Amino acid sequence: MHVAYLVIDAVIDLAWTRKAFADAPHDFFIRPAAIADEIWHTAQQDRSAWSFLVEVRPFRESW
Description:
Blueprint: E1 5-8, E2 11-12, H1 15-20, E3 29-30, H2 32-43, E4 53-56
Parallel strand pairs: 1-4, 2-3
């Protein structure tokens, strides 16, 4: 069994978050489909290289 911890450190692109951050550029948000893709990728990883901690952040974030 593969257990993983996924951190979503972003504003998710939803109608109400777009309204709340009306002046934010497109790449400030993270798309729900992109989150789902990352979860799928984590669940389907090659057994020789499993990740436990995955952090999902938008492209625009500087850190």
